[in-house]
Amino acid sequence: APQSYEHIKVSTPRPGVGLVELNRPKALNALFTPLILELNTAMKAFDHDPSIGALVLTGSHKAFAAGADIKEMSTKDFADAYGADFIESWSELPNTIKKPVISAVNGHALGGGCELAMMCDVLYCSEKANFGQPEIKLGVIPGAGGSQRLTRAIGKSRAMELILTGKNFSGREAFDWGLAARVFETPEQCVDGALDTAEQIASYSRIAVKAGKEVVNKSQDLGIREGVEFERRLFHGLFGSEDQKIGMQAFAEKKKAEWKHR
Ligand code: HXC
């Protein structure tokens, strides 16, 4: 059943593509709990929808998300944060969504907004996107994976500088440093580019795409030897899928593959 949301917009603008737009304009998409819960629900619904092959997550041209909601957080004490596992619900996104998620980042992506963008599988942005981990200015540190994901993406020295100074960085810098896969001139081009890529991914075998996401993510957790072994097992496993036969036969016959798992 279609669900209506208050703080996000959900649509399917291209074949096989689910689009989630953060939509809390008055607070520059600050990520308060009701928004995160809607985001989780919508992402899970797309993940379970067999007609969807890839997802795009974006905000507005002004803000992807200006961070966790500072007003919501400001009065929490340690017992509130630790006892109620504050931020726990955020970790559902990268852990439970099996389909690829592309973030299209325009405007501010600060603190938790930057972290949310980095949780996605592929990060696209426009040149004027404004990234940063400004938590240090609020007397805290990143809490949704920022210190780990930013450091892996751009290296220790740069990540340390950014996290300890709270300095922002541009979409152009995010691309130059390897955090973003692509940088676009305008926000429109950025969202279109993300939708194009999602549509292309959605045109392939769902089984192969799922395995592709899984193996790349394993590289973040495993050493090289275990990682390569893990990849090999999954590669071998795909010879048990109809789509391996379909894909390779289509090549030999110079035809377009008609995937079973689509
Ligand atoms: C709550 C926020 C907010 C936030 C903006 N707003 N960011 N509310 N939490 N993170 C609200 C403002 O209070 C204001 O509401 C409205 O959005 C518009 O913002 P302005 O500041 O008036 O806009 P502008 O002057 O254009 O400045 C934009 C900005 C600034 C530079 C992005 O809003 C800003 O610095 N925001 C905070 C960024 C930040 O520190 N993020 C990290 C949060 S900590 P009113 O009602 O006044 O109109 C974090 C920790 C994550 O994310 C840890 C794990 C999750």
Explain how this protein is built.
With 262 residues, the chain is α/β, with parallel strands linked by helices. The protein folds into two domains: 8-202, 2-enoyl-CoA Hydratase, Chain A, domain 1; 206-252, Lyase 2-enoyl-coa Hydratase, Chain  A, domain 2, CATH 1.10.12.10. It has twelve helices and ten strands. The protein has helices at residues 33-48, 70-73, 78-83, 92-96, 112-119, 146-154, 156-165, 171-176, 187-202, 206-218, 224-238, 242-252; strands spanning 8-14, 17-22, 54-58, 63-65, 101-105, 108-110, 122-126, 130-132, 168-170, 182-184. The strands form two sheets. It has a six-stranded mixed sheet, with helices on both faces. It has a four-stranded mixed sheet with strand order 4-6-8-9. The chain is globular and about 60 Å long. The mean pLDDT is 96. Hexanoyl-coenzyme A is lined by residues 27-28, 30, 66-71, 87, 108, 110-112, 134-135, 138, 142-144.
